[in-house]
Each structure stands twice: as C-alpha cells, then as structure tokens.
Amino acid sequence: MLTPEENELLTRTGPGTPMGELFRRFWQPVALAEEVAAPDQPPKRMKLMGEDLLLFRQSDGRVGLVEPRCAHRGADLYFGRNEECGLRCVYHGWKFDADGRCVDVPNMQPGRARDNIMKTARIRSYPVREWGGQIWAWFGPEGMEPELPMVEWALVPPENRYISKKLQECNWAQSLEGAIDTAHFSYVHRVLSEEGTGKPVYLDKRQQWIHEDGAPTFEVIGHDGGLVMGGARRADPGELYWRISQYLVPNHSLAPGTFPGEPYAAQSWMPVDDENCWIFTVTWCPDRPISDEELERYDSGRSVHAMVDENYVPHRNRANEYMLDRELQRTRLFMGITGLSEQDAAIQDSQGRIADRARETLTPSDAGIVQFRKLVLGLARDLQQGIEPPQAQRPEVYACHSGGAVEPEDVSFGEVLERRFGHPTAHATDLLPGRQAAE
Amino acid sequence: MLTPEENELLTRTGPGTPMGELFRRFWQPVALAEEVAAPDQPPKRMKLMGEDLLLFRQSDGRVGLVEPRCAHRGADLYFGRNEECGLRCVYHGWKFDADGRCVDVPNMQPGRARDNIMKTARIRSYPVREWGGQIWAWFGPEGMEPELPMVEWALVPPENRYISKKLQECNWAQSLEGAIDTAHFSYVHRVLSEEGTGKPVYLDKRQQWIHEDGAPTFEVIGHDGGLVMGGARRADPGELYWRISQYLVPNHSLAPGTFPGEPYAAQSWMPVDDENCWIFTVTWCPDRPISDEELERYDSGRSVHAMVDENYVPHRNRANEYMLDRELQRTRLFMGITGLSEQDAAIQDSQGRIADRARETLTPSDAGIVQFRKLVLGLARDLQQGIEPPQAQRPEVYACHSGGAVEPEDVSFGEVLERRFGHPTAHATDLLPGRQAAE
Amino acid sequence: MLTPEENELLTRTGPGTPMGELFRRFWQPVALAEEVAAPDQPPKRMKLMGEDLLLFRQSDGRVGLVEPRCAHRGADLYFGRNEECGLRCVYHGWKFDADGRCVDVPNMQPGRARDNIMKTARIRSYPVREWGGQIWAWFGPEGMEPELPMVEWALVPPENRYISKKLQECNWAQSLEGAIDTAHFSYVHRVLSEEGTGKPVYLDKRQQWIHEDGAPTFEVIGHDGGLVMGGARRADPGELYWRISQYLVPNHSLAPGTFPGEPYAAQSWMPVDDENCWIFTVTWCPDRPISDEELERYDSGRSVHAMVDENYVPHRNRANEYMLDRELQRTRLFMGITGLSEQDAAIQDSQGRIADRARETLTPSDAGIVQFRKLVLGLARDLQQGIEPPQAQRPEVYACHSGGAVEPEDVSFGEVLERRFGHPTAHATDLLPGRQAAE
C-alpha cells in the first residue's frame, strides 16, 4: 500500500518529476534498432517519458533523437527532410544535425547575423547509442553519461537474441510489478483443460507445479543492481520448484522461467507518458543462436513476445478487451485470453491507467513488489537530495541471470542461487572479462 | 428558472452529492431482469450515478451488484470468473460473493493471516431485489432498506407488462421534466399531414385535440408520493380533454395518455452519470396480458419504447442527430424525426448535456416542472439537514394511476381525478390489499 | 518572439478577450453566400470566435445569425423549423426572427402575460449583410456598425470573382502570419524536379527566381489600413523580383503573386475557436470575368483554393497528415505534399494548434510578421483603454492592391509601389468614386 503521494512519486516520469529524474540518470532503451535502419529515411515520431521527439539516422549513419520543433518559428520537423547529415525544416529550410546543432539557415543572407543564429539556435537533442539490437538514449545531464549497462543480451551475437517491442496501455510501474510478481502465473496463465477432456493438460511438470501450487513462498535479496527474487512451489515430493527473477534498477526485469539450455528473457519498460509504456522484450541464449523452432514461436506472438501491428500496438489490446472469449474462459483458459503476453497486458491494464495503490491488501507473495517500491522510491528521494543512484555508474551490476531450479525442500534460497547460477545474487561474473564482478 | 447552484443541486447525483444522497434513500431500478438471466454468466459492466459496478447472478441465483475492483491489488473483476457462488479475480484467484465478502484467497497459505484477510477484505456491494421485471438496488445506508415501492407493474403477472430500457444522452432531470410537461405533445409529436394530401390526418380525436390546442391549462396537486398533474385542452364543444400524469419521488413518472382499457405507461430515470441516464419504460395492463398487437407495436420501437441496439443504445441518437430528416420535417412530421421516444430524446438532449436553467422563460404550462423542482430540491436540502424523505418509507404511495379523460368544461381537476380514478390524487387503493392507502 | 501573455493576447478571440473585442469592431466575413442560398431552408450550425450560432435565410430573404438556444427552456433551435419569417422551436413552438425577436409563443393563451414574454424573450442575434459573395456579420456594440470595407472583390461583378472557404486546423494568427511571410515560398512550395529528370523544372521565370533566391530582402510600410510588404529576390541580372502583399486590419491579407492581367487573391481568417479557423479565399479580376481555364484550375483544388468536402474541410488535413508522400518529397516536391493551399495548411498547422511564440528565432525576412504583431496587439491594447481602432470606421482604406513586379535593383520599394500600383501604399483610388482615397 502506498499513500497517494507515494503513488504519484512512483508513477510519474515526465521532465522534472523525481522519478523522471531518476530514469534520466540511466541509459534508457528507446527503440528497436530496426526502427532507424537506413540513413536519410523520414524521421520517426516518438513520445518518451512525456516528451515528443524525432528519431532519425542521418546520412553518415549517426542516429539522432531530437525535439521536433524548428528553432526558427516552431514548425514540426517531422514534416522535414532527412538529407545530407541533418533534418531540414520545410518551412524556411533551416537544418539541424543529430546533435541538435543548427547547420543551415538559408533564408538569411550570409554574414555575421546568420553566423550568430547558427551558433545559438539549437534544438534539444539526446545522445544515443546502439546496443544489443536497441537504441539507447541518455536523457540526463550532459557529460554524465556512464558506460552502457552490461546486460547479457547486448554481449551476445545478434543471432543469439530476439527482440520485440509492444505498447502497454498503463503506467510502467504496475506492468513491471506484474513481471516481478511470480505468483500470478498460477492464475493469469493457467490452462484449464484441453478441449473436450475436461481435465487439465500440462505441457510439462513445471506447468503442473505452477498450477497446482498457487501460494508460493517468496524470498527477496537486495544486491548492487536491484533485487533477486525467488518464488518456491511444491514440486515432486520433498522438492521445491524455484522461479527466480531479477529487478534491475530502475526499469528492467529478468524473467523466472529459464531452465539450463533455454533462452533467457528480459523486459524493460519505457514510459510513453504516465498512462502508456513501451515494453522491450528480449530473449537470448548466451552460447547458441535462437533456434528455428524458438524463432517460429516468437514470431507467432503467443509467447512473451506479443503479436503487434506495424506501430508495435498489440492486436489484442484495451480497445478490443484483448479479445476476451468467455467460452474459452469457461472451458480452457482461466483468463479466457490467448497469449502469454496478452494475458499479462490485460490484467495489468485492468488495474487502471495508473493503479491506485492506496487500496491494496498485500500478501506474502507480494514481497518482491514491496521491496521494488521501497528501493526505487528511495533512490528517487535520494536523488532529490542530491544523492546520485549508485547503480547508474556501475554497468557491471546489470550482468546477471534469472531462471528456474528444482531443489530439495531444505535448501535455502541463497544456496539455490549459488547452485543454479554460481553466485549468491545470480550475477554473471563470467560475462565480465577484466571487470570486478558485483558483490 | 434556477440559480446555477440550484441547477447543480438538481442535476448531480454522484456519491456524496445532495441529490445523489436523496436518490440513495430509495430503491432504484438499475437493470432489466433479462440482463442477469442465468447464473454463472459473465459479469456485466454498469455505471450508475457515477459509480462503476458489476452486475452478476451467482450460482445459487442471487444477484450481486459490486464494485469491479479486487481488494488485493485492484485488478478489474470484469475479467473475472463468475463461478461457484462468487466472482473470482483472475490475477491471483481472490473470490467475492454477491455480498462483497471475500470467500477465497488462494495465493496465501492457510492460517491466521489468510483468515484475517478474508474477514476484512471486502468489496463494496449493494443489496438487490428483482421486482416487476427489473433489478432494483439499494445504495443507501446499510439496514435502512424500506420495502419495495408498490408500483403497479410489479404487482401484475409478467405477461401483463412490457419493459424496455434505453440510453438517454443527457442529465436525468431534464428528461424527466420532458415527461411531466404534457404541453410538448402538441409540438414535438405533431403529425403535419399524410404524404401528398397536405392536410393533417389524425389517428383519433385525442390526437386532433392535442394538435389543435397547443396551450393547455395546467393544474398540479401535491400528494404523499409526489405530484399529480393535469393538462386540459379544448375537446368537443363544451368539453375538455384532460391528460393526467404523475411524478413519483424522486425519479419516476406515469404517462398521461391512457384511456380506460389501454395500457398504462411509466418511466424511471437512472443516472449513468450526470450527462447520461437510463430510462426504464414500462407499459402494463392491470387486468389482461399485453395483446399481440400492442406487443408488435412495442417491439417495432416507434412508441414510448425506443428501437435500441444490444447495449440499449437507441438507433436514433445524438451522434446521428436522431436521423433528422428535413424533408419529412417540411412535409409530414413537425419535428422531422420518426418515433415518439426518439422525438422526446432529441428535444431533451438538445437542451445540452445538462440543461442550463438560469436562462429560462417559464410559462403557465410549465407549472409541473416548477413544482417538481421545488419538491425534489426541498427533499434534497432536507436530507442535508438530516430530515429523511418521508416517501422512502411508504411504498404504498407509489400505487397510483395516470391517464386521460374527457369531461365537461366546468368539472374541476379534483373532480376529474375522482371520476376517472376514484381517488382525489389517483392513488390505486384497490392495489393494496391489507394496506393503508395513501391519503 | 512574444511573451506568453502577448501570445494569449494575440491568439484568443472568444467573447470578452481583448483580441476578440478588436475583431468585433469590424465587419467579419462568416460564410459564403451559397451557404444560405434559399429562404426557409434548415438553419446551419456555425461556430465563430468560440460562439455557437445558427445561420438561416428567412422567408423574406433576410439572413439571420442567432444563438441556437430557445429562450423558453433552452432547446436547440437547430432542430427547429425555418418557416414564415422565423425560426420555430419544435419543443413548444416559440418562434424567433432574424433580429432575435420572439414573434410567437403558441403554448400560452393570448393575453398580457404572453405579450410581455414576446416583448422580452429575445435570443442573441447579429446583424448580417451580403457583400462580395460572402455573408458578413457585425458582432460589435449595437448601432456602431460602420459601412462595409471597400474590398475590391465586393465591387466587381460576381462573374469576376471566385470565392472558396476551407477549414484550417490551427489558430488564426499563425495562419495569417504564413500568408504575410513571403519567404516561405522558396521552401514550402518548391518543386524539386519533374519525374525522372532529376533537374528542377520551372513553370516560368518567377518560379525560378523564387526557388533560386531563398533569402529575399524584406520591406514593410505601414498605412491607414494595415501594412504593405515587399520581398525582393534576385531576378535577371541587374533586376529584382518584388512580391508585394498587404495586411489589412485585423484579419485579411492580399497575396503577392499577381502580375498585371492576372487575378488578385485575398484571404480572410475567421476563428472558429482558438484552435481552428475558416479561411475565405477570393480571387478576382477588376476588369474581366474569371476565365474558364482559371475556373477549372480553382475548381481542381491545387491552387490557393483547396480541395474541400461538403463541410469545407480539406481532403488533405491534420488527421491524414495532408497525405504526406515521402517518395514525392524525396524526388519531386520539397514538402512532399500536393497542392499550394495544402502545403500552407500543413506547415502552419505543424506549428501547433496555437503556435508558441516564446521560443522563436526571427530573421530579417520575418519583418512583416513582427510588424503585424506589433500593429494588431497595439490596437487590441488601445481598445482595452477605450481607444477605438481607426480602421474600423474607414471602409475606404480596404481598397488596395497587391502583386508582383520586376524592377531594376536600384529602385526603392516606395518607387516600386508607385510604378506598379500608382500609389505609395498600393491603395486603389480609382475604386472609390466620390470617396477620399486613403493616404
């Protein structure tokens, strides 16, 4: 439960908000690399943390993320021409490069006056980098950019990963909370039965354990990059099935399902505004390409990767009630909505555009959510006091893993982490040649 | 004419508003019985007096009207499962019954903590009853429920009545004002001529009298349940045609057209919010079933019963300007809009979402409207002072009639009421076996 | 650059705003004459400077512009009947004429009470005149109407002019600024090349000069009716190509393109509200009918006259991004949008619904814009102090011309005006028989 003030603090990320400032102390994923594939293509409209922006790749390959407003008389550079290393306004021909510098003012005659204008007439721009199949941007104070976070998917060859993007029609925080709450798997994603049989059918034992134990015990350990969380369910007699996820400050999580040999999965939340966000979903294998079978499944949009249109809007969305099928709900799927990603989207959106956290009744399995809020609110408040978030300057703390494990009942969570990941908080020390691993 | 403050007082019925509190002292019709026909069907979204709610019939046949928000983390119970005597949230499986009690918390392990949560985690719910083909709800203080109002249509066999529901896209009060203003019949519902003839054609003498005398004299008598109103028009020489309607506190009216042997008609207004309302329209015969011919007419949607879609939205509505046909208006129908109900809807909506009553010029035939405002504003103000509305606890005052009569010019309104209804305010004492009739 | 306060002052024209009051001191063009062609046709909804109104022609040919609200109970007179010299409300038959006087109250019996109501129950109405193919209205203080402005297109025979109307989806002021900024022609309207050739193709030398010199020098001279502005570009060696436009207080401009023998062009901006405006565009010849060829071009909608639908909404508009064609933009049209009018609309709308003038970097070629703001803001402020705008009472100052000229480099702007128009500020003294020409 949060007070209304805390809820505001948690959910608002526009310019000047405390949480917005915290977000702006970290490199942020803003687009898929495919969105600015070729130079000199039309600029692409973006809205990120409440700011309207244009994304474009200029002739020399550099990517720009700039405000869409010409410095002359405020015409929209979206209508502009991306040509010869800059974006040219079509009202009077002014031109700006990826750094926001004014590089041409053709409606003035050459001379000192024009030179002065070209020196001072800038448009707002944000540094960007390509990293792991994504475009990352720095919205923070100039010159304070840290190195990019050492997320594993950025370290593997492109063929080892699969990235997608989708619109989520609610605030970033409640969607992230859905991801670090592993208890919901027993309900939101429950398969009731195969058609006609009336009996539950499980793809594998894991699915059975998840569905048969709807009240997992939950443990949370803080670390340098965020939180590692374990939800334990009864498995075969004498054993527990652990699902271990990560929350990485401020807006990333690693998913709990991976068994050794299977692809890892991560999600990042980029607020469009306070009532919508982009979710970037990555699945990757450290040591092999994504298989054809996996690729086919991801492309089909029924996994963590959603089925989306050309604007990355899911086919099943708020407007069509996620194509909720009451007959399906009665007979086959607990939720009546097809698709793992779509089920998550529906239930998270259903909490409202911005979930009201003042009227909650939390349970032990909400422990991860409680710790997440405490951590990120603390960092935002610290920053208001001038204390920078330590994670921002330590890219190596983002090198960590998540996944599932089956262990005897008497093995502690800490020991499970050591056995499964070789590290007490599942940090991937082997990913970091020449670096000091997180502790 | 009302001051802006009085207009606010009259029109706002959200939680906590004075008029909203008055409404909540009476059983309110909220849905047709057909809307929750079978148990264990999906819950139905409702918005009533500004509150979002779910309506459902649970396994044992009981109907619930509850807030749609799970007490755990606020997920929308609309996506939930109506099963085994309760509505189950699909996020983590919490379950609530028709009384709003929490009856299952499966994401917690059994024990005292879970017991405590199940005891305290309630969702808001409102008692409901089925009565006269409708679902009625009690939004008032717990335990203060009176008996249901003795409206005649609830006392007759189902085959003797016909009920419909339609959306009206304006505030409840101005629509009700349209119903108790019988002068508008001479204009809004006027038929100009049959096609081609250029001469007015009347179905019967009543229609002719209505159209030929557009300035009826108007009389209003207060009674225990509200107001009885008579509009008198010139009929055959030496006679008056009386159209007598009822206003029943706070949001019902009985229509003035009924001649002996014809069906009665009533309307109730249930605010969706302050800019929309549901109108429930009932036509019934005390002593015989609705005839096939009447049924056909009602089904066809050109009477007081509108033609609506599956969501009870009229085919002719604000968005399509009620299919106003200017050629029809020029030649055949004064208003150019087809359908009695549709004509009323159009002209009432046209006053604005919430009519501004500060710029009116009222006439003698608006006497019923003036008295209605005075009565209902007085009751709302009294309630603010702690004085309960007396009608609420006297269900028998709702047993009354309305209709038309033709009488010699020198017969007073009081005498007309006695002759036509056998009672000075048209109360139906015979409907109330073993009860004290209203006085 | 304007302060936010100045920008508000410039852009808001609703009732009671300073700029709105200034507008209301001038006859304003509100509709094409064709919009109220025949008597007794249905009233037409208008929104003008934030006010909802109805426009209709009554039986005797007079045109009324009245508020749409019946004085009785506020029903919408749009649903009313335009018959027998007045607009009749269909709720209770009240009737109002073009002067807003109540001429019938049929729901009351004859007598003093009804007489009193008919005397006092007025609806707001505005005097209108037909002038130059347009309906003009007077929104100012009763009795202060000046004579109509002596715009030339109103003085020529109907066959000598072509008038159109179109919706512009932004504030009036920035659209007018687009018209008096002749520098934008070199960019917004630039043709890159004919298909396939890769080389620019010019229709005539003027187009070539415009495109080859994107930094015209700009001169502005104030006069009794507003401003005359000249933009000079390099033409053939030793010559300048002058494009001379007019700004006429408070919301008209005359276009700079006309060479002798060609039609003149003017535009007037009528705010719908602060975020939309109507543009009336007139092209006319003083001494000959519009030719068939010109007519065909105007009808085709690729000139200053836009292609619009039956509600005067351009086919290419904000919602469809003006059918921006990126391939066209890459190869043939600098802006990628077809149509002179459509190019202007797109770039002006792109500045926002209301352009923010606090973040501008103005250049010498924006001199006309700077003077326009200064002049019109000064008049609005003066009026707040009780000083009436002098132009309002001098209709003859609106008789002036605009157009292009080619002159040797050493001829001053004043001399160019004398040579081209025979008057130092291009006033058309010959248009004013018996009048004192403007000085």
Automatic annotation (TrEMBL), chains A, B, C:
Keywords of the record: 2Fe-2S, Iron, Iron-sulfur, Metal-binding, Oxidoreductase
One example GO MF annotation: iron ion binding
Signal peptide coordinates: none
Rieske domain span: 27-137
This protein's record includes keyword Metal-binding: yes
Ribonucleoprotein among keywords: no
The name this protein goes by in its record: Ring-hydroxylating oxygenase subunit alpha
Domain of life: Bacteria
